């Protein structure tokens, strides 16, 4: 298998963290430089028609995109440790959390950065109003997540799951906006981040 990936980008990072937690090391990596617009080439579009990263090329030549779908596939090939839920019920709650984090944390953050950071003019037709709107949504969710984490160690319940990975990859990307959780304002998020940094997904 071959993973098309890109350094510092949060969605491929989700897949890398997932692979680290599973101990998967046998997938060939192909780096695509987003800022150099390598993902916009005709050649890359034959792999990922929507010109997005990550993309996983299977051994039979089929290509999976969407980081969550890629992780889902890898969970099937490497079932342990389970990160998507052991029962339908647990999987439903984990999916709820993962989608909350993806759409209410990572997405506003992406708006904030892509529409506000000067370097992103390389790939985004920036709309200035979207940056503060994204920042507001991101900060709101960070505060809410902090209150949720007051009573537990992990995002979707009492164990580490894909939802923690999506949130942790979001925090990594937030560094581009020079944002990191503050211990006075978001103590539970800071403690959770410490737990993530100590895990395989937190290793370089
Ligand atoms: N929903 C997709 C989103 C993929 C995505 O937006 N990837 C970004 C990198 S994090 C990308 O390819 N950006 C290039 C662009 O927007 O031009 C997923 O989960 O994989």
Structure description:
This protein has helices at 10-22, 42-45, 67-77, 88-116, 130-148, 162-174, 187-197; strands at 2-5, 28-31, 55-57, 63-65. It contains 7 helices and 4 strands, in the order βαβαββααααα. The relative contact order is 0.14. α1 crosses α6 (162-174) and α4 (88-116) runs antiparallel to α5. The two termini are 22 Å apart. α1 links the parallel β1 (2-5) and β2. The protein is α+β, with helices and mostly antiparallel strands. The structure holds glutathione. Glutathione binds next to α1 and α3.
Layout of secondary structure:
Layout: E1 2-5, H1 10-22, E2 28-31, H2 42-45, E3 55-57, E4 63-65, H3 67-77, H4 88-116, H5 130-148, H6 162-174, H7 187-197
Helix pairs in contact: 1-3, 1-6, 4-5, 4-6
The structure holds glutathione.
Residues 9-11, 34, 39, 52-54, 66-68, 123 line the site of glutathione.
